[in-house]
Automatic annotation (TrEMBL):
<dbReference type="Pfam" id="PF00276">
    <property type="entry name" value="Ribosomal_L23"/>
</dbReference>
<comment type="similarity">
    <text>Belongs to the universal ribosomal protein uL23 family.</text>
</comment>
<protein>
    <recommendedName>
        <fullName>Large ribosomal subunit protein uL23</fullName>
    </recommendedName>
</protein>
<keyword id="KW-0687">Ribonucleoprotein</keyword>
<comment type="function">
    <text>One of the early assembly proteins it binds 23S rRNA. One of the proteins that surrounds the polypeptide exit tunnel on the outside of the ribosome. Forms the main docking site for trigger factor binding to the ribosome.</text>
</comment>
<keyword id="KW-0694">RNA-binding</keyword>
<keyword id="KW-0699">rRNA-binding</keyword>
<dbReference type="InterPro" id="IPR012678">
    <property type="entry name" value="Ribosomal_uL23/eL15/eS24_sf"/>
</dbReference>
<dbReference type="InterPro" id="IPR012677">
    <property type="entry name" value="Nucleotide-bd_a/b_plait_sf"/>
</dbReference>
<dbReference type="GO" id="GO:0005840">
    <property type="term" value="C:ribosome"/>
</dbReference>
<keyword id="KW-0689">Ribosomal protein</keyword>
<dbReference type="GO" id="GO:0019843">
    <property type="term" value="F:rRNA binding"/>
</dbReference>
<dbReference type="InterPro" id="IPR013025">
    <property type="entry name" value="Ribosomal_uL23-like"/>
</dbReference>
<comment type="subunit">
    <text>Part of the 50S ribosomal subunit. Contacts protein L29, and trigger factor when it is bound to the ribosome.</text>
</comment>
<dbReference type="GO" id="GO:0003735">
    <property type="term" value="F:structural constituent of ribosome"/>
</dbReference>
<dbReference type="GO" id="GO:1990904">
    <property type="term" value="C:ribonucleoprotein complex"/>
</dbReference>
<dbReference type="GO" id="GO:0006412">
    <property type="term" value="P:translation"/>
</dbReference>
Length: 99
C-alpha cells in the first residue's frame, strides 16, 4: 500500500465514551475510516502509522441521520467506523505519534 493511501484510509480517531472505555479496558481503539477501506487496508495503515501489531479489525457502517431543515428534509453523510484490537503489550499513544 502506498503512503498516500495510508493517510486516506484513516480519517481520524473517534472519541466517545464507549471508545474511551474500550481503550482503557480491552486495548481497542476506534477510528473513523474511509467508506471504501477494507479491513486489510485498515490493519496495514494502523501498523505503519503507529508501529503496533494489530490483532483484529471490526468495521461498522454508520448510516447518516435524516434531518429537517428550513428547506425540507436533508441527510447527513454515511461513514465507516473501525474497531482496532491490538495484540497484548501494544498501545497507541496519540500524543507522541504526532511528532
Amino acid at each position: 500500500m502506498n503512503q498516500e493511501r495510508v493517510f486516506k484510509v484513516l480519517v481520524g480517531p473517534h472519541v466517545s465514551e464507549k471508545a474511551t472505555v474500550l481503550a482503557d479496558g480491552k486495548s481497542q481503539f476506534v477510528f473513523k475510516v474511509a467508506t471504501d477501506a477494507t479491513k486489510l487496508e485498515i490493519k496495514k495503515a494502523v501498523e505503519s502509522l503507529f508501529n503496533v501489531k494489530v490483532a483484529a479489525v471490526n468495521t461498522v457502517n454508520v448510516l447518516g441521520k435524516s434531518k429537517r431543515t428550513a428547506r425540507g428534509v436533508g441527510k447527513r453523510n454515511d461513514w465507516k467506523k473501525a474497531y482496532i484490537a491490538l495484540q497484548p503489550g501494544q498501545d497507541i499513544d496519540f500524543a507522541s505519534s504526532a511528532e
